[in-house]
Design brief:
heterodimer; A: 236 residues; alpha+beta; 4-stranded mixed β-sheet; two-stranded antiparallel ribbon; 8 helices; 10 strands; 21% helix; B: 457 residues; mainly alpha; Formate dehydrogenase/DMSO reductase fold; 2 strands; 2% strand; globular
Chain lengths: 236, 457
């Protein structure tokens, strides 16, 4: 059984590089993710209640002092850690690491202990406090490839696993940049790069080695599959 | 040394079986009120299941709130059972006699209530029954044994099983006494429960051996249960939870709150069930002395927890402690917690007059548990509020009305179950009391007065 799976499946390791020097904080990635992944509309109450669901969010922080102050942006999504703190605390294996380097969430198995959410240092995991609802005229825009999550379970960024599956189904070989997650596709400044880190010629593999690269909260030893690029600004 | 009054066997039977053999009005009233509160909490739970966990005060990233606090709280209360009955039995403390059964029964009910809390807390509790408890052999989906949430039920169910056995073995001689005093179907039921007890020497010997064996076997559980519960926090990556001192700190904290709860229970029992002949100032005095030691040991571990954080000076951990100690409302809650669980009660307990006053002991022991509930809340929520250095901060946690109802309901549930238990079984072990009386019987030999029984130690 195991050998058959190995022979038919290409050996992928998906990863992402986000160039913060290019990011303008426009939130296009957030909106693209929202519509691709059937995330309910976050209205004002959702934000005020602290229960907005955003698989990718743009963190804003300030650098420098007034008047020489600059707004900086950091898009944060699930880092697909190779040593993921969320995985080992789930009692029902609702979250585990698959053989393509993805941290996957099995919605149907989740019982909602929310321990994974506590243990995620990136705050990338979100809980469905309510049953998701869409306005009647938006019913038909739901993505048929993505499960609509019920209330009481955790969810998070999947690196648009439905697109990965569709492109690599049956062990199909894929060209680099043949497909991208919704956020990467939507980024107007080309700040985000997605691809197979096992392919040494892929765009993401080249950027992975960039000297500006760093990983968020690297000291925790979570070993994320997402790297950020940022020029250290000596005058900031 | 403690048996100053002599009671006849008939008097012990009459007074301890009073509520079992007849139903007083006050009992009906209290049970109905508690039952109503429990029913209210059950409907609050139904409402929450129907609407979703949105009705709680939880939000990103504070995923754990009152329910987990309450879970830790009731597991803590349950530590009284093993402390009072097993350790005091093994150390042959005579003053344990009137409180062993009440403590053990409270342990069983507190554990049941604590097991309910994670179920109430989960997003889809029905899935837990469907998914986790019957191991899914057919599809090969096993629970992940790396998760502390699998260790928890294992530890608690072990403790619940051993405590229930403990209560039952100690109950057998008393069941036989009730059997002999009842008629009709009650006689049949108590007869089956008493397992054919006739009180012959062999049965007494076996019962004694079972008691000692269970006491000894339950000792590892004493250390393990709250250690394992503390690992829910210890093995996580959350700053200020990720500390090794949590296991002993939680265990000693559990004994502190559990033994205080026993004091509360004993005083209420004495008043309600008119047990003045059995629960004396001396008993409460002895527990209060024990509490001084336990509370001080607990304070030491609390101090260690704080000092380790200050010593490491890890930024994230310091942020959490800053929030706990200096930022309202947590700073206020912290003050209330430390004042309630140590600063008021322990110095008061140093005075013999306080230790021997039922009123003072009732209020101080209640204060300890208010403090200990807050302790768990202060451990859990502020750590989650400041667990990551993200600007995208989220609001604080305010428990909703549903959560408060369920907390009140859990207290009412334990009281309700204890009241029901007292209707069917004596809250003070009759045979233990009689044994205590026998130990102080004296006979005249020539011109000397000597103990009638010599207990081999």
């Amino acid at each position: 059984m195991a050998t058959r799976t190995q022979s038919t499946r290409a050996n992928h390791k998906w990863g992402m590089v986000i160039d913060l020097d290019r990011c303008t904080g426009c939130q296009a990635c957030v909106i693209a993710c929202q519509s691709e992944n059937n995330i309910p509309l976050n209205d004002q109450t959702a934000f005020l209640d602290g229960r907005a669901i955003e698989w990718i969010r743009v963190e804003r922080y300030w650098e420098g002092d007034y008047p020489d102050i600059k707004a900086r942006f950091l898009p944060v999504l699930c880092q697909h850690c190779d040593n993921a703190p969320c995985e080992s605390v789930c009692p029902v294996y609702a979250t585990y690491h698959n053989n393509e380097g993805l941290n996957v969430q099995v919605y149907n198995r989740c019982v909602g202990t929310r321990f994974c959410g506590n243990n995620c240092p990136y705050h990338a995991r979100l809980f469905n406090y309510w049953e998701p609802v869409w306005p009647e005229d938006l019913r038909n825009q739901l993505n048929p490839d993505v499960t609509v999550r019920t209330r009481g379970i955790m969810e998070k960024c999947t690196f648009c696993i439905q697109r990965i599956r569709r492109s690599t189904r049956g062990g199909k070989q894929v060209e680099d940049q043949a497909f991208n997650p919704a956020c990467v596709q939507a980024c107007p400044t080309d700040a985000m790069t997605f691809g197979d880190l096992n392919n040494p010629d892929s765009r993401v593999s080249h950027k992975w080695e960039d000297e500006r690269a760093f990983r968020v909260l690297e000291a925790l030893g979570t070993n994320p599959s997402v790297k950020y690029l940022k020029q250290v600004d000596a005058h900031a | 040394m403690y048996y100053r009054r002599t009671l006849t066997d008939a008097q012990i039977n009459r007074e301890l079986l009073d509520v079992v053999l007849r139903t007083p009005m006050w009992w009906v009233v209290i049970v109905s009120i508690l039952g109503l509160i429990v029913a209210g909490a059950a409907s609050a739970f139904g409402f929450m299941m129907n609407q979703g966990l949105g009705v709680t005060g939880l939000q990103q990233p504070i995923f754990w709130g009152f329910f987990i606090t309450n879970f830790i709280f009731w597991v803590g209360i349950s530590h009284a059972g093993v402390m009072i009955s097993a350790i005091l039995r093994l150390s042959q403390a005579e003053w344990r006699r009137p409180m062993v059964r009440a403590a053990e029964t409270m342990t069983v009910f507190a554990l049941m209530t604590s097991l309910l809390q994670p179920l109430i807390h989960a997003g889809r509790p029905w899935r837990i029954f469907y998914w986790v408890f019957p191991y899914d052999w057919a599809r090969g989906i096993w629970p992940d044994v790396r998760s502390p949430l699998v260790w928890d039920p294992t530890a608690i169910i072990t403790y619940l099983t051993s405590s229930s056995l403990f209560v039952y073995t100690a109950l057998i001689p008393d069941l036989a006494i009730i059997r002999d005093r009842s008629t009709g179907w009650r006689r049949t039921v108590y007869g089956i429960l008493a397992l054919g007890w006739h009180g012959n020497p062999r049965q007494w010997k076996l019962q004694g051996i079972a008691g000692i064996l269970l006491s000894a076997l339950i000792l590892p559980v004493f250390v393990s249960v709250h250690s394992i519960v503390s690992w829910d926090f210890g093995v996580s990556l959350v700053p200020s939870w990720h500390v090794t001192v949590f296991a002993p700190y939680f265990v000693i904290g559990a004994v502190h709150s559990g033994v205080s709860a026993v004091v509360t229970l004993m005083i209420l029992m004495r008043k309600l069930y008119k047990l003045e002949n059995f629960i004396w100032e001396e008993h409460i005095d002895a527990v209060a002395r024990l509490l001084i030691v336990v509370a001080t040991a607990w304070l030491f571990f609390f101090w260690l927890d704080l000092v380790f954080a200050l010593w490491l000076k890890e930024e994230q951990e310091m942020t959490v402690w800053h929030l706990r100690l200096f930022e309202p409302p947590w700073s206020w809650l912290f003050l209330v917690f430390i004042v309630c669980s140590y600063i008021i009660p322990v110095p008061l307990w140093m005075f013999r007059r306080v230790r021997r006053s039922f009123t003072w002991m009732l209020w101080t022991s209640l204060l300890v548990n208010v403090g200990m509930f807050l302790e768990r809340l202060i451990i859990i929520v502020p750590a989650l509020m400041r667990k990551g250095p993200w600007v995208f901060t989220y609001d604080t946690y305010r428990p909703s009305a549903v959560e408060v109802t369920l907390i009140v309901g859990s207290i009412a549930l334990v009281a309700f179950l204890l009241m029901l238990f007292s209707k069917f079984f004596p809250l003070i072990p009759i045979w233990e009391e009689k044994e205590g009386q026998k130990l102080i019987d004296e006979v005249k030999v020539g011109d000397r007065v000597v103990p009638a029984l010599v207990k081999e130690h």
